[in-house]
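Q: What structure does this chain adopt?
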Amino acid sequence: MSVKRTSIHGQWSSHWVFILAVTGSAVGLGNIWRFPYMVGESGGGAFVLLYVICVLLMGIPIMMAEILLGRRGRQSPVNTMRVLAEEEGLSRHWQLLGLMGMIAGFLILSYYSVIAGWTLAYIFRTGAGVFEGASADTTIKIFNELVSDPEKLLAWHTVFIVMCTVVVSRGVKSGLEQAVCYLMPALFALLLIMVGYAMSTDKFVEGLVYLFVPDFEKLAGNFREVFLNASGHAFFSLSLGMGAIMIYGSYLPDRASIFGTTMIIATADTVVALLASIAIFPIVFTYGLEPASGPSLIFITLPIAFGQMPGGAFFGTLFFFLVMIAAWTSGISLLEPAVTWLVENKGLTRIKATTVSGLVVWLLGICTILSFNHWAFSFNFFGLTKENGLFDIFDIITANFMLPIGGMLMAIFVGWRMARQSSRDELKVNEKIYRIWWFTIRYIAPAGVLLICLQAVGVL
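A:
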C-alpha cells in the first residue's frame, strides 16, 4: 500500500468536473479539424472503424493507466513517475517518461497554438462576410495570404497563448475548473446547432453513408498509411502520452471511479469527432466540394459553403468559434504539466511558472509560423511527402512517435513493473473488469503501439 498523497495544486470539486476537464483536453482541434480531414483523406467509414478499434484496444486501457498514475502520484508527470518508480523499487529513470510527455505537450502546443490562431482570424473574417459568394480561388487566396504573412500569424498565435496562460495561471479551482465548466457545455451546444443545420441540407444522408459505411476497397494499397493515421490520431485525440491526462488525474478525488470516468471521456471524445464530421460532410457534399481536401478542409473548403448558404456568415462564425473553444480547452491542458513541474521543482509561483512556460511555447511556435512561409521546405518521410518543414517534423515526432511510445511505456510500467495490487487498489473495479483491463494493458495495448511505431518507420 502506498502513502495517500495530496496534490499541492488543488483538486477537482467533483468527478464530473474532472470528466469535463479531461474531455476538454481530449476534445480539440484533433476532433474538429484533424479528424474530419483524415476521414476525408482515408476514404470515410473504413477509417472511422479503424479509429474506433484503436480507441477500444489501446486508447481506453492506456488512458486508465495514465489517470491511475496521476492520481497515485499527485504531482507533475516527471515527479509522479519518479516517486512511483521509487515506491515500486524501480529505477528513477522512469521519470524520463514524464519528461518526454511534457516535451511532447510543449511541441504540440507550439504548433497547435498557430493553427488555433487561424481559427481566431477566421471568426472575424467569416463574421465580416469576407466569404460571401466566395469561389474556391477566393478562399485559397484568403488562406494563403494569412499563412504567408508571419506578422499576422504571430499576432494570432500570441493572442491564443495569452488566452491559455491567463486560465492556467489562476490555478485548478479558479482557472481550469471554471473554464471547462463554461466552455465545454458551450462547445456541445454549438456543435449540436451545426449538426441541426447539416440535417437541413440536401446531402445529409449521403454524408452519413460516407462517414459510417466502410468501403474497404478504399483501403487497398494504402492500409499501412490509413492504419497509422487512425492509430496515431487515437493517441492525439485522447491527449495520451503528453502528460495532460496524468496531471489532470492527479487532481481527481479518491472516491471517483477511474474506469467509469474513462469510458465517459472516451465516448464523449469520439462522439464529438463524429458529430463534427456529421456537421461538416453534408455541407461539403451539398455544395459539391471535395471531402479529401486535407488540412485545408475547414479553412479553404468549408468557407466556400459558408459563402453560399443562407445565413452563412452566422453559421460560419459559429463554427469557427466552436473550433476555437475546442482548441482553448486542449491548450490549457497541454500547458499545465510544465507549470506544475516548475512550481514543484523550481519554487516559482504559479503565475511566474505559467509565464515562463507560455513564453517557451510562444517561441517554439515561431518555428511553425515560419514553416508556412520563409522556412518552408519539402521532405520525404518513408514514402509520404511533407511540405511544411518544421511544422510537419513536430507533428510527425509527436503524433507518430512520442505519444505512442509514451503510451507504450506507461502500459509497460503499469502492466509489468508496478505491483498488481497497486493498480488494483487505485482502480477499485470488480475483478472481471480488472482482469480484462490487466490483460489488455499487458499484452494488447503495448503490442498495438509497437505495431504503430513499426508502421511509422516503414518496417511493416
